[in-house]
Amino acid sequence: MAAFYWSTALGLVAVTWLSFHYLALDLSQLFTIKEATRMTQYAASFFPPDLSADYLVRAARGMAETLAISAIGTALAALAGVFLALPAAGYFGAVVRAASKLVLNFLRAVPELVWAAIMVLAAGLGPFAGTLALAVHTAGVLGRLFAETLENTPREPQLALSDAGSPASAAFIYGTLPAAIPQFVAYALYRWEYNIRMAAVLGFVGAGGLGQMLYFSLSLFQQQQACTIILAMLVLVAIVDAVSAWLRKRLVL
Amino acid sequence: MTTTVTGKRSQESLRDPAAGRRALAAVVVLLLLWPGVIWTEFSPAVLFDPQNRQTIGHFLGTFLPPNFSPEFLRLIAKSTLETLALATAGMALAIAFALPLALIVARSLSISRIGPGPGRGAGNLLRTLVRFVLMVLRGIPEIVWALLFVRAVGLGPAAGVLAIAITYSGMLGKIYSEIFESGDVQPARVLLESGSGRLGSFFYGILPGALPELVSYTIYRWECAIRASVVMGFVGAGGLGQQMELSMRLLNGGEASTILLTFLLLVLLADAVSALLRRALT
Protein backbone atom coordinates (compact mmCIF):
# COMPACT_ATOMS: atom_id res chain seq x y z
CA MET A 1 0.00 0.00 0.00
CA ALA A 2 2.82 2.37 0.87
CA ALA A 3 4.40 1.70 -2.51
CA PHE A 4 1.11 2.63 -4.15
CA TYR A 5 0.91 5.93 -2.27
CA TRP A 6 4.48 6.84 -3.10
CA SER A 7 4.08 6.01 -6.77
CA THR A 8 0.88 8.09 -6.97
CA ALA A 9 2.57 10.99 -5.21
CA LEU A 10 5.56 10.70 -7.51
CA GLY A 11 3.23 10.58 -10.50
CA LEU A 12 1.47 13.77 -9.39
CA VAL A 13 4.79 15.55 -8.96
CA ALA A 14 5.84 14.40 -12.43
CA VAL A 15 2.55 15.62 -13.96
CA THR A 16 2.99 18.99 -12.27
CA TRP A 17 6.54 19.32 -13.53
CA LEU A 18 5.43 18.35 -17.04
CA SER A 19 2.69 20.98 -16.90
CA PHE A 20 5.11 23.79 -16.14
CA HIS A 21 7.48 22.44 -18.75
CA TYR A 22 4.77 22.16 -21.43
CA LEU A 23 3.57 25.71 -20.88
CA ALA A 24 7.21 26.87 -21.03
CA LEU A 25 6.40 28.97 -18.00
CA ASP A 26 9.32 30.89 -16.70
CA LEU A 27 7.95 32.20 -13.45
CA SER A 28 11.36 33.39 -12.36
CA GLN A 29 10.97 36.00 -15.08
CA LEU A 30 8.05 37.43 -13.13
CA PHE A 31 10.27 38.02 -10.16
CA THR A 32 12.99 40.06 -11.80
CA ILE A 33 13.20 43.60 -10.47
CA LYS A 34 12.15 45.11 -13.78
CA GLU A 35 9.10 42.88 -14.10
CA ALA A 36 8.17 43.32 -10.45
CA THR A 37 8.26 47.10 -10.74
CA ARG A 38 6.12 46.95 -13.88
CA MET A 39 3.56 44.73 -12.12
CA THR A 40 3.53 46.92 -9.05
CA GLN A 41 3.02 49.98 -11.21
CA TYR A 42 0.15 48.28 -13.04
CA ALA A 43 -1.43 47.24 -9.73
CA ALA A 44 -0.96 50.75 -8.34
CA SER A 45 -2.68 52.28 -11.36
CA PHE A 46 -5.95 50.74 -10.11
CA PHE A 47 -5.92 52.98 -7.05
CA PRO A 48 -7.65 55.07 -5.97
CA PRO A 49 -10.91 53.74 -7.47
CA ASP A 50 -12.92 56.23 -9.52
CA LEU A 51 -15.56 57.38 -7.04
CA SER A 52 -16.87 60.39 -8.96
CA ALA A 53 -20.64 60.71 -8.66
CA ASP A 54 -21.02 60.35 -12.39
CA TYR A 55 -19.24 56.99 -12.55
CA LEU A 56 -20.85 55.69 -9.35
CA VAL A 57 -24.25 56.20 -10.98
CA ARG A 58 -23.11 54.18 -13.98
CA ALA A 59 -21.69 51.47 -11.73
CA ALA A 60 -24.99 51.36 -9.83
CA ARG A 61 -26.82 50.91 -13.11
CA GLY A 62 -24.43 48.08 -13.99
CA MET A 63 -25.11 46.48 -10.61
CA ALA A 64 -28.86 46.68 -11.18
CA GLU A 65 -28.45 45.14 -14.63
CA THR A 66 -26.26 42.31 -13.30
CA LEU A 67 -28.69 41.69 -10.45
CA ALA A 68 -31.57 41.58 -12.92
CA ILE A 69 -29.73 39.19 -15.26
CA SER A 70 -29.04 36.78 -12.40
CA ALA A 71 -32.55 37.00 -10.91
CA ILE A 72 -34.51 36.69 -14.16
CA GLY A 73 -32.12 34.06 -15.49
CA THR A 74 -32.49 31.95 -12.34
CA ALA A 75 -36.27 32.42 -12.24
CA LEU A 76 -36.65 31.34 -15.88
CA ALA A 77 -34.33 28.40 -15.20
CA ALA A 78 -36.37 27.32 -12.17
CA LEU A 79 -39.54 27.42 -14.25
CA ALA A 80 -37.97 25.45 -17.10
CA GLY A 81 -36.29 23.17 -14.57
CA VAL A 82 -39.63 22.09 -13.09
CA PHE A 83 -40.97 21.22 -16.52
CA LEU A 84 -37.81 19.31 -17.43
CA ALA A 85 -37.68 17.57 -14.04
CA LEU A 86 -41.11 15.96 -14.47
CA PRO A 87 -40.07 13.77 -17.43
CA ALA A 88 -36.57 13.32 -15.97
CA ALA A 89 -38.03 11.95 -12.72
CA GLY A 90 -39.75 9.23 -14.73
CA TYR A 91 -43.33 10.53 -14.78
CA PHE A 92 -43.77 9.78 -18.48
CA GLY A 93 -41.98 6.47 -18.86
CA ALA A 94 -38.39 5.25 -19.19
CA VAL A 95 -37.73 6.38 -22.76
CA VAL A 96 -38.83 9.99 -22.16
CA ARG A 97 -36.84 9.90 -18.95
CA ALA A 98 -33.59 8.93 -20.65
CA ALA A 99 -34.16 11.51 -23.39
CA SER A 100 -34.84 14.36 -20.97
CA LYS A 101 -31.81 13.41 -18.88
CA LEU A 102 -29.71 13.66 -22.01
CA VAL A 103 -31.11 17.15 -22.68
CA LEU A 104 -30.41 18.22 -19.09
CA ASN A 105 -26.84 16.92 -19.25
CA PHE A 106 -26.21 18.78 -22.48
CA LEU A 107 -27.59 22.08 -21.14
CA ARG A 108 -25.44 21.70 -18.04
CA ALA A 109 -22.24 20.59 -19.77
CA VAL A 110 -21.89 23.65 -21.99
CA PRO A 111 -20.37 26.41 -19.81
CA GLU A 112 -22.36 29.62 -19.24
CA LEU A 113 -19.78 31.71 -21.04
CA VAL A 114 -20.11 29.59 -24.19
CA TRP A 115 -23.90 29.83 -23.99
CA ALA A 116 -23.50 33.59 -23.65
CA ALA A 117 -21.32 33.79 -26.75
CA ILE A 118 -23.98 31.81 -28.67
CA MET A 119 -26.85 33.90 -27.28
CA VAL A 120 -25.09 37.12 -28.27
CA LEU A 121 -25.33 35.83 -31.83
CA ALA A 122 -28.98 34.87 -31.39
CA ALA A 123 -30.26 37.89 -29.48
CA GLY A 124 -27.69 40.61 -30.12
CA LEU A 125 -25.37 42.31 -27.64
CA GLY A 126 -26.83 43.22 -24.27
CA PRO A 127 -28.27 41.90 -21.03
CA PHE A 128 -31.00 39.83 -22.67
CA ALA A 129 -28.37 37.51 -24.17
CA GLY A 130 -26.81 37.08 -20.72
CA THR A 131 -30.18 36.32 -19.17
CA LEU A 132 -30.91 33.64 -21.76
CA ALA A 133 -27.44 32.10 -21.36
CA LEU A 134 -27.81 31.84 -17.59
CA ALA A 135 -31.35 30.52 -17.94
CA VAL A 136 -30.35 27.77 -20.37
CA HIS A 137 -27.36 26.50 -18.39
CA THR A 138 -29.09 26.79 -15.01
CA ALA A 139 -32.19 25.00 -16.35
CA GLY A 140 -29.92 22.01 -16.90
CA VAL A 141 -28.53 22.22 -13.37
CA LEU A 142 -31.82 22.85 -11.60
CA GLY A 143 -33.71 20.34 -13.75
CA ARG A 144 -31.38 17.60 -12.59
CA LEU A 145 -31.56 18.63 -8.92
CA PHE A 146 -35.37 19.01 -9.09
CA ALA A 147 -35.70 15.56 -10.68
CA GLU A 148 -33.62 14.05 -7.88
CA THR A 149 -35.82 15.80 -5.32
CA LEU A 150 -38.97 14.46 -6.96
CA GLU A 151 -37.52 10.95 -7.02
CA ASN A 152 -36.69 11.18 -3.32
CA THR A 153 -40.11 12.53 -2.32
CA PRO A 154 -42.41 9.82 -0.91
CA ARG A 155 -44.93 8.74 -3.54
CA GLU A 156 -47.62 7.57 -1.11
CA PRO A 157 -49.64 10.81 -0.81
CA GLN A 158 -49.84 11.09 -4.59
CA LEU A 159 -50.81 7.42 -4.95
CA ALA A 160 -53.46 7.81 -2.26
CA LEU A 161 -54.95 10.79 -4.06
CA SER A 162 -55.02 9.13 -7.45
CA ASP A 163 -56.41 5.91 -5.93
CA ALA A 164 -59.18 8.03 -4.44
CA GLY A 165 -59.98 9.27 -7.92
CA SER A 166 -58.25 12.61 -8.37
CA PRO A 167 -56.81 13.32 -11.81
CA ALA A 168 -53.05 12.84 -12.23
CA SER A 169 -52.27 16.57 -12.31
CA ALA A 170 -54.16 17.28 -9.07
CA ALA A 171 -52.63 14.23 -7.41
CA PHE A 172 -49.15 15.55 -8.28
CA ILE A 173 -49.88 19.14 -7.29
CA TYR A 174 -51.42 18.24 -3.91
CA GLY A 175 -49.64 14.95 -3.22
CA THR A 176 -46.00 15.43 -4.23
CA LEU A 177 -45.36 19.11 -4.93
CA PRO A 178 -45.94 20.46 -1.39
CA ALA A 179 -43.21 18.17 -0.03
CA ALA A 180 -40.79 19.05 -2.83
CA ILE A 181 -41.25 22.83 -3.06
CA PRO A 182 -39.09 23.87 -0.06
CA GLN A 183 -36.18 21.93 -1.57
CA PHE A 184 -36.84 23.47 -4.99
CA VAL A 185 -36.74 26.96 -3.49
CA ALA A 186 -33.55 26.20 -1.57
CA TYR A 187 -31.80 24.90 -4.71
CA ALA A 188 -32.98 27.89 -6.76
CA LEU A 189 -31.68 30.32 -4.14
CA TYR A 190 -28.32 28.53 -3.93
CA ARG A 191 -28.03 28.72 -7.67
CA TRP A 192 -28.94 32.41 -7.60
CA GLU A 193 -25.93 33.02 -5.32
CA TYR A 194 -23.74 31.26 -7.87
CA ASN A 195 -25.36 32.99 -10.84
CA ILE A 196 -24.76 36.50 -9.51
CA ARG A 197 -21.04 35.72 -9.82
CA MET A 198 -21.54 34.37 -13.34
CA ALA A 199 -23.75 37.31 -14.37
CA ALA A 200 -20.93 39.64 -13.35
CA VAL A 201 -18.54 38.07 -15.89
CA LEU A 202 -20.84 37.13 -18.79
CA GLY A 203 -20.40 40.69 -20.03
CA PHE A 204 -16.89 39.76 -21.20
CA VAL A 205 -18.47 38.30 -24.33
CA GLY A 206 -20.90 41.22 -24.67
CA ALA A 207 -23.79 40.00 -22.56
CA GLY A 208 -24.31 43.19 -20.53
CA GLY A 209 -23.94 44.06 -16.86
CA LEU A 210 -20.83 44.82 -14.81
CA GLY A 211 -18.67 42.44 -16.86
CA GLN A 212 -19.17 44.46 -20.01
CA MET A 213 -18.25 47.69 -18.16
CA LEU A 214 -15.11 46.03 -16.73
CA TYR A 215 -14.08 44.79 -20.15
CA PHE A 216 -14.55 48.26 -21.67
CA SER A 217 -12.73 50.11 -18.92
CA LEU A 218 -9.75 47.73 -19.07
CA SER A 219 -9.62 47.94 -22.85
CA LEU A 220 -9.54 51.74 -22.61
CA PHE A 221 -6.83 51.55 -19.89
CA GLN A 222 -9.17 53.15 -17.33
CA GLN A 223 -7.84 51.07 -14.42
CA GLN A 224 -9.37 53.28 -11.74
CA GLN A 225 -12.83 52.77 -13.23
CA ALA A 226 -12.12 49.04 -13.49
CA CYS A 227 -11.32 49.08 -9.77
CA THR A 228 -14.71 50.66 -9.03
CA ILE A 229 -16.42 47.92 -11.04
CA ILE A 230 -14.52 45.14 -9.24
CA LEU A 231 -15.52 46.66 -5.90
CA ALA A 232 -19.12 46.85 -7.14
CA MET A 233 -18.96 43.14 -8.00
CA LEU A 234 -17.72 42.28 -4.50
CA VAL A 235 -20.46 44.38 -2.88
CA LEU A 236 -23.18 42.89 -5.08
CA VAL A 237 -22.05 39.33 -4.34
CA ALA A 238 -21.99 40.05 -0.60
CA ILE A 239 -25.51 41.53 -0.73
CA VAL A 240 -26.95 38.61 -2.69
CA ASP A 241 -25.29 36.07 -0.37
CA ALA A 242 -26.84 37.78 2.65
CA VAL A 243 -30.32 38.11 1.10
CA SER A 244 -30.30 34.53 -0.16
CA ALA A 245 -29.16 33.14 3.19
CA TRP A 246 -31.89 35.14 4.96
CA LEU A 247 -34.56 33.98 2.47
CA ARG A 248 -33.46 30.36 2.77
CA LYS A 249 -33.72 30.51 6.54
CA ARG A 250 -37.15 32.17 6.39
CA LEU A 251 -38.68 30.10 3.60
CA VAL A 252 -37.22 26.67 3.94
CA LEU A 253 -36.71 25.93 7.59
CA MET B 1 -82.22 19.47 4.69
CA THR B 2 -79.32 17.51 6.16
CA THR B 3 -78.08 16.46 2.72
CA THR B 4 -77.76 20.06 1.54
CA VAL B 5 -75.75 20.94 4.65
CA THR B 6 -73.26 18.10 4.17
CA GLY B 7 -73.14 18.89 0.46
CA LYS B 8 -72.23 22.47 1.21
CA ARG B 9 -69.63 21.44 3.77
CA SER B 10 -67.90 19.01 1.43
CA GLN B 11 -67.91 21.71 -1.24
CA GLU B 12 -66.10 24.00 1.17
CA SER B 13 -63.59 21.42 2.31
CA LEU B 14 -62.62 20.75 -1.30
CA ARG B 15 -61.25 24.27 -1.60
CA ASP B 16 -57.52 24.60 -0.97
CA PRO B 17 -57.19 26.47 2.33
CA ALA B 18 -53.71 27.79 1.42
CA ALA B 19 -54.68 28.96 -2.08
CA GLY B 20 -55.00 32.62 -1.11
CA ARG B 21 -51.60 32.77 0.54
CA ARG B 22 -49.91 31.02 -2.35
CA ALA B 23 -51.51 33.35 -4.90
CA LEU B 24 -50.35 36.35 -2.86
CA ALA B 25 -46.79 35.00 -2.68
CA ALA B 26 -46.76 34.43 -6.44
CA VAL B 27 -47.96 38.00 -7.09
CA VAL B 28 -45.31 39.44 -4.74
CA VAL B 29 -42.53 37.46 -6.46
CA LEU B 30 -43.74 38.59 -9.88
CA LEU B 31 -43.86 42.23 -8.75
CA LEU B 32 -40.31 41.95 -7.36
CA LEU B 33 -39.05 40.42 -10.59
CA TRP B 34 -40.81 42.96 -12.82
CA PRO B 35 -38.08 45.65 -12.77
CA GLY B 36 -35.60 42.92 -13.67
CA VAL B 37 -37.59 42.12 -16.78
CA ILE B 38 -37.19 45.76 -17.86
CA TRP B 39 -33.50 46.05 -16.92
CA THR B 40 -32.57 42.90 -18.82
CA GLU B 41 -34.26 44.35 -21.92
CA PHE B 42 -36.32 41.17 -21.96
CA SER B 43 -37.84 40.75 -25.41
CA PRO B 44 -38.10 37.30 -26.93
CA ALA B 45 -39.06 39.05 -30.18
CA VAL B 46 -35.39 39.83 -30.94
CA LEU B 47 -34.81 36.09 -31.30
CA PHE B 48 -37.01 36.24 -34.38
CA ASP B 49 -35.45 39.35 -35.81
CA PRO B 50 -34.54 38.36 -39.39
CA GLN B 51 -30.91 39.49 -39.14
CA ASN B 52 -30.28 37.69 -35.82
CA ARG B 53 -32.02 34.61 -37.12
CA GLN B 54 -29.83 34.57 -40.18
CA THR B 55 -26.62 34.94 -38.13
CA ILE B 56 -27.41 32.22 -35.62
CA GLY B 57 -29.08 30.02 -38.24
CA HIS B 58 -25.99 30.15 -40.41
CA PHE B 59 -23.71 29.51 -37.42
CA LEU B 60 -25.69 26.57 -36.01
CA GLY B 61 -26.24 25.26 -39.55
CA THR B 62 -22.50 24.79 -40.01
CA PHE B 63 -22.21 22.86 -36.68
CA LEU B 64 -22.72 19.63 -38.60
CA PRO B 65 -20.49 18.05 -39.63
CA PRO B 66 -17.88 18.89 -36.95
CA ASN B 67 -14.46 19.73 -38.32
CA PHE B 68 -12.40 16.55 -37.93
CA SER B 69 -9.61 17.43 -40.33
CA PRO B 70 -6.22 16.16 -39.07
CA GLU B 71 -4.58 19.57 -38.79
CA PHE B 72 -7.49 21.04 -36.82
CA LEU B 73 -7.56 18.00 -34.53
CA ARG B 74 -3.85 18.44 -33.92
CA LEU B 75 -4.47 22.08 -33.00
CA ILE B 76 -7.26 21.06 -30.63
CA ALA B 77 -5.12 18.36 -29.03
CA LYS B 78 -2.46 20.98 -28.38
CA SER B 79 -5.00 23.37 -26.84
CA THR B 80 -6.45 20.58 -24.71
CA LEU B 81 -3.03 19.71 -23.33
CA GLU B 82 -2.47 23.40 -22.71
CA THR B 83 -5.76 23.62 -20.77
CA LEU B 84 -4.86 20.59 -18.65
CA ALA B 85 -1.35 21.87 -18.00
CA LEU B 86 -2.71 25.31 -17.15
CA ALA B 87 -5.12 23.94 -14.56
CA THR B 88 -2.49 21.64 -13.04
CA ALA B 89 0.24 24.28 -12.87
CA GLY B 90 -2.24 26.78 -11.41
CA MET B 91 -3.33 24.27 -8.78
CA ALA B 92 0.29 23.48 -7.84
CA LEU B 93 1.00 27.18 -7.25
CA ALA B 94 -2.31 27.56 -5.39
CA ILE B 95 -1.43 24.72 -3.01
CA ALA B 96 2.01 26.26 -2.45
CA PHE B 97 0.41 29.62 -1.53
CA ALA B 98 -2.54 28.19 0.39
CA LEU B 99 -0.77 25.84 2.80
CA PRO B 100 1.31 28.46 4.64
CA LEU B 101 -1.64 30.86 4.74
CA ALA B 102 -3.88 28.13 6.15
CA LEU B 103 -1.26 27.32 8.78
CA ILE B 104 -1.30 30.95 9.87
CA VAL B 105 -5.10 31.14 9.97
CA ALA B 106 -5.83 27.81 11.71
CA ARG B 107 -6.78 28.54 15.31
CA SER B 108 -5.93 25.01 16.38
CA LEU B 109 -2.23 25.79 15.80
CA SER B 110 -2.17 29.05 17.70
CA ILE B 111 0.35 29.09 20.50
CA SER B 112 -0.89 32.39 21.88
CA ARG B 113 -4.39 31.02 22.34
CA ILE B 114 -3.30 28.32 24.76
CA GLY B 115 -3.26 30.55 27.75
CA PRO B 116 -2.81 34.05 29.00
CA GLY B 117 0.42 35.35 27.63
CA PRO B 118 1.93 37.88 25.32
CA GLY B 119 1.09 38.02 21.63
CA ARG B 120 -2.55 37.07 21.81
CA GLY B 121 -3.78 40.34 20.33
CA ALA B 122 -1.08 40.36 17.66
CA GLY B 123 -1.94 36.76 16.76
CA ASN B 124 -5.62 37.56 16.38
CA LEU B 125 -4.84 40.59 14.26
CA LEU B 126 -2.59 38.58 11.93
CA ARG B 127 -5.19 35.84 11.57
CA THR B 128 -7.95 38.34 10.77
CA LEU B 129 -5.69 40.06 8.24
CA VAL B 130 -4.80 36.82 6.43
CA ARG B 131 -8.44 35.74 6.51
CA PHE B 132 -9.35 39.02 4.80
CA VAL B 133 -6.65 38.51 2.15
CA LEU B 134 -7.97 35.00 1.45
CA MET B 135 -11.49 36.45 1.12
CA VAL B 136 -10.41 39.03 -1.45
CA LEU B 137 -8.41 36.43 -3.40
CA ARG B 138 -11.40 34.12 -3.80
CA GLY B 139 -14.01 36.88 -3.93
CA ILE B 140 -12.90 38.03 -7.37
CA PRO B 141 -13.82 35.40 -10.01
CA GLU B 142 -10.89 33.64 -11.70
CA ILE B 143 -11.85 34.96 -15.10
CA VAL B 144 -11.61 38.55 -13.84
CA TRP B 145 -8.10 37.79 -12.53
CA ALA B 146 -7.34 36.27 -15.94
CA LEU B 147 -8.52 39.43 -17.68
CA LEU B 148 -6.31 41.52 -15.40
CA PHE B 149 -3.27 39.28 -15.86
CA VAL B 150 -3.66 39.17 -19.62
CA ARG B 151 -3.07 42.92 -19.49
CA ALA B 152 -0.23 42.59 -17.00
CA VAL B 153 1.77 39.65 -18.44
CA GLY B 154 0.41 39.46 -21.98
CA LEU B 155 -1.79 37.00 -23.88
CA GLY B 156 -1.22 33.31 -23.24
CA PRO B 157 -1.40 30.59 -20.63
CA ALA B 158 0.78 32.40 -18.04
CA ALA B 159 -2.15 34.73 -17.29
CA GLY B 160 -4.44 31.73 -16.84
CA VAL B 161 -2.01 29.96 -14.52
CA LEU B 162 -1.69 33.04 -12.31
CA ALA B 163 -5.47 33.56 -12.28
CA ILE B 164 -6.10 29.98 -11.15
CA ALA B 165 -3.27 30.22 -8.62
CA ILE B 166 -4.69 33.39 -7.03
CA THR B 167 -8.38 32.44 -6.87
CA TYR B 168 -7.78 28.87 -5.81
CA SER B 169 -5.22 29.77 -3.14
CA GLY B 170 -8.02 31.86 -1.58
CA MET B 171 -10.44 28.93 -1.69
CA LEU B 172 -7.95 26.27 -0.65
CA GLY B 173 -6.55 28.43 2.14
CA LYS B 174 -9.97 28.88 3.67
CA ILE B 175 -10.99 25.23 3.39
CA TYR B 176 -7.59 23.91 4.51
CA SER B 177 -7.72 26.04 7.66
CA GLU B 178 -11.25 24.79 8.34
CA ILE B 179 -10.09 21.20 7.92
CA PHE B 180 -7.21 21.84 10.33
CA GLU B 181 -9.68 23.15 12.89
CA SER B 182 -12.49 20.64 12.42
CA GLY B 183 -10.78 17.33 13.12
CA ASP B 184 -9.44 16.10 16.43
CA VAL B 185 -7.31 19.07 17.56
CA GLN B 186 -6.37 17.57 20.93
CA PRO B 187 -3.09 15.95 19.79
CA ALA B 188 -1.87 19.23 18.29
CA ARG B 189 -2.79 21.09 21.45
CA VAL B 190 -0.98 18.61 23.66
CA LEU B 191 2.10 18.97 21.47
CA LEU B 192 1.91 22.76 21.62
CA GLU B 193 1.44 22.73 25.37
CA SER B 194 4.47 20.52 25.85
CA GLY B 195 6.58 22.98 23.92
CA SER B 196 6.53 21.77 20.35
CA GLY B 197 6.63 24.35 17.57
CA ARG B 198 3.74 25.08 15.22
CA LEU B 199 5.16 23.08 12.32
CA GLY B 200 5.99 20.11 14.53
CA SER B 201 2.54 19.96 16.03
CA PHE B 202 1.03 20.38 12.57
CA PHE B 203 2.96 17.48 11.08
CA TYR B 204 2.47 15.13 14.04
CA GLY B 205 -0.76 16.39 15.59
CA ILE B 206 -3.00 17.45 12.71
CA LEU B 207 -1.75 16.23 9.35
CA PRO B 208 -2.21 12.48 9.97
CA GLY B 209 -5.92 12.95 10.70
CA ALA B 210 -6.57 15.66 8.14
CA LEU B 211 -4.73 14.19 5.15
CA PRO B 212 -7.58 12.20 3.53
CA GLU B 213 -9.95 15.17 3.58
CA LEU B 214 -7.18 17.47 2.39
CA VAL B 215 -6.40 15.25 -0.58
CA SER B 216 -10.03 14.69 -1.46
CA TYR B 217 -10.88 18.40 -1.44
CA THR B 218 -7.75 19.29 -3.44
CA ILE B 219 -8.62 16.78 -6.15
CA TYR B 220 -12.17 18.11 -6.30
CA ARG B 221 -10.78 21.64 -6.75
CA TRP B 222 -8.44 20.44 -9.48
CA GLU B 223 -11.49 19.22 -11.34
CA CYS B 224 -13.10 22.67 -10.89
CA ALA B 225 -9.88 24.29 -12.10
CA ILE B 226 -10.09 22.31 -15.35
CA ARG B 227 -13.65 23.49 -15.93
CA ALA B 228 -12.56 27.05 -15.19
CA SER B 229 -9.53 26.98 -17.46
CA VAL B 230 -11.66 25.69 -20.32
CA VAL B 231 -13.41 29.07 -20.50
CA MET B 232 -10.47 31.16 -19.36
CA GLY B 233 -9.29 31.45 -22.94
CA PHE B 234 -12.26 33.66 -23.80
CA VAL B 235 -10.33 36.60 -22.37
CA GLY B 236 -7.08 35.49 -24.03
CA ALA B 237 -5.55 33.31 -21.33
CA GLY B 238 -4.73 30.36 -23.58
CA GLY B 239 -6.09 26.85 -23.95
CA LEU B 240 -9.29 25.57 -25.53
CA GLY B 241 -11.32 28.68 -24.70
CA GLN B 242 -9.10 30.81 -26.89
CA GLN B 243 -9.68 28.44 -29.84
CA MET B 244 -13.42 28.57 -29.13
CA GLU B 245 -13.43 32.35 -29.05
CA LEU B 246 -11.60 32.45 -32.38
CA SER B 247 -13.92 29.97 -34.06
CA MET B 248 -17.01 31.77 -32.77
CA ARG B 249 -15.77 35.14 -33.90
CA LEU B 250 -15.26 33.71 -37.40
CA LEU B 251 -18.70 32.03 -37.13
CA ASN B 252 -17.05 28.71 -37.98
CA GLY B 253 -19.67 26.27 -36.68
CA GLY B 254 -17.78 23.11 -37.67
CA GLU B 255 -14.80 24.11 -35.56
CA ALA B 256 -17.02 25.28 -32.71
CA SER B 257 -18.84 21.96 -32.52
CA THR B 258 -15.56 20.02 -32.49
CA ILE B 259 -14.35 22.19 -29.61
CA LEU B 260 -17.66 21.77 -27.75
CA LEU B 261 -17.32 17.98 -28.09
CA THR B 262 -13.78 18.25 -26.73
CA PHE B 263 -15.11 20.32 -23.78
CA LEU B 264 -17.60 17.59 -22.95
CA LEU B 265 -15.01 14.82 -23.22
CA LEU B 266 -12.53 16.76 -21.11
CA VAL B 267 -15.05 17.46 -18.34
CA LEU B 268 -16.20 13.83 -18.31
CA LEU B 269 -12.59 12.66 -18.21
CA ALA B 270 -11.67 15.02 -15.37
CA ASP B 271 -14.75 13.82 -13.52
CA ALA B 272 -13.72 10.18 -13.90
CA VAL B 273 -10.05 10.72 -13.04
CA SER B 274 -10.97 12.79 -10.01
CA ALA B 275 -13.39 10.13 -8.75
CA LEU B 276 -10.75 7.44 -9.31
CA LEU B 277 -7.99 9.38 -7.54
CA ARG B 278 -10.25 10.24 -4.63
CA ARG B 279 -11.25 6.61 -4.21
CA ALA B 280 -7.66 5.41 -4.47
CA LEU B 281 -6.12 7.96 -2.13
CA THR B 282 -8.69 8.39 0.62
Task: Describe the structure in your own words.
The complex is a heterodimer of chains A (253) and B (282). Chain A is globular and about 80 Å long. Chain A is mainly alpha-helical and 253 residues long. The longest helix of chain A has 36 residues. In chain A, 81% of the residues lie in helices and 0% in strands. The two termini of chain A are 46 Å apart. With 282 residues, chain B is mainly α. Helices cover 78% and strands 0% of the residues of chain B. Chain B contains eleven helices and no strands. The N terminus of chain B is likely disordered. Chains A and B meet through helix 1, helix 2, helix 3, helix 5 and helix 6 of A and helix 2, helix 3, helix 4, helix 6 and helix 7 of B.
Q: Helix count of chain A, per DSSP?
A: 11
How much of the polypeptide of chain B forms β-strand, as a percent range? under 5%
User: Structural class, from secondary structure content of chain B?
Assistant: mainly alpha
What number of domains of chain A? 1
The biggest beta sheet of chain B is recorded as: none
Annotated CATH architecture of chain A: Orthogonal Bundle
SSE succession of chain A: HHHHHHHHHHH
Unreliably modeled segments of chain A: none
Helix content of chain B: over 70%
> In what range is the share of β-strand residues of chain A?
under 5%
Biggest interface and residues each: A-B, 54 and 58 residues
Could you name the CATH class of chain A? Answer: Mainly Alpha
In whole angstroms, how far apart are the ends of chain A? 46 Å
Tell me the radius of gyration of chain B: 28 Å
Overall, the morphology of chain B is extended
